[in-house]
Each structure stands twice: as C-alpha cells, then as structure tokens.
Design brief:
The chain is α+β, with helices and mostly antiparallel strands. The chain has 3 helices and 5 strands; from the N terminus they run αβββββαα. A hairpin with a 4-residue loop joins strand 2 and strand 3.
C-alpha cells in the first residue's frame, strides 16, 4: 500500500510540474498582440526598436515610445514629424527587455546598421498560420490610424526573415 501511495504522489507531482511549465510557456507567447506590421519569426515580442526613426513600439500596450523635448513620450500615435515613416517596410528589431529606452545608447549603437533596410517580412504578408489572428489597429482602435501607415498596403513578399538577435 505504501508503494502505491508513493507512486501516486510521484505521478501527481509530475503532472503538477508539467501543467505549471505549460502555463509559463503559453504566458510568454503574444503573437496575437503583435501588430500586422511587426516582423515575423517571433512568438514573443515586448518592444520593437525602429532604427529609421530611433524610437520604440510597445507591443503589449500598443503604443509608441519616442524621445521628444528631453523626455521619452508614450503615445498611441507618432507625432507629425514621422509622417513619412512606413511601418510596413522599415526594419524592426525585437527587444525583450524592460524599458529599453533606459539603455537607448547601447541599443542604438548595436542596431544602427539596420537603418534604411527594407527587407524584413511583416506579419501581414506572412502565410504562416500562427499569424492568422494578429492584432489589427483598425479593429481595436475604432479605426484610428497613426501617421506611420500613410495608406500603403503593398502585399509584396520578398521572402526575407527578421533579425533573430534579442
């Protein structure tokens, strides 16, 4: 009887550990929160660093973070000075660290060579089933659009993958 109880306890512990591990893994997946203009290849992204405008996008809170008048501003839309910025064709670096702007000089130096690159596949253009239910700004913000899209909807597929360095 003791062996049976011991075996049952061991099985119960293993099942509890497995369930806990599965919960933690699923909590780190946020594909559905990433915008349609985000880079493909990531199951989890907290921020995108955009070297072309030297700013960030907060994937979880759906807002931009940019430097303005000596402070980091968090806003759902980009200011007019970024009116020509094309989110779909600019390069985005996934940065999975808390408040990356606090280490901005290091991040800018590390990724400045990506400025001007336009060869990154975005979620909207992917045929990967994982991106079927991505976050779309026009569905969740009552049609509000920021200055970054400019109505461009090019559906070209150049086959390039995003930068995998986190």
């Amino acid at each position: 009887m003791r062996k049976f109880l011991f075996s049952a306890a061991m099985i119960g512990c293993c099942l509890a550990f497995t369930a806990d591990a599965q919960i933690r893994v699923h909590a780190n997946v946020n594909i559905g929160s990433q915008p349609e203009w985000g880079p493909t290849g990531y199951t989890h992204a907290e921020y995108y660093y955009m070297p072309d405008i030297d700013a960030y996008y907060d994937v979880i809170n759906h807002q931009y973070v940019y430097y303005d008048n000596n402070i980091w501003v968090h806003n759902r839309v980009l200011p007019p000075r970024y009116g020509n910025f094309d989110r779909y064709h600019s390069y985005k670096v996934v940065v999975n660290q808390r408040n990356p702007w606090e280490h901005h000089d290091r991040i800018r130096a590390r990724y400045e060579n990506y400025r001007g690159r336009h060869d990154q596949e975005v979620i909207r253009d992917s045929r990967d089933e994982r991106y079927r239910n991505h976050w779309r700004e026009d569905q969740h913000d009552n049609g509000r659009r920021d200055h970054g899209d400019n109505g461009r909807r090019d559906h070209g597929d150049n086959g390039h993958r995003g930068h995998d360095d986190h």
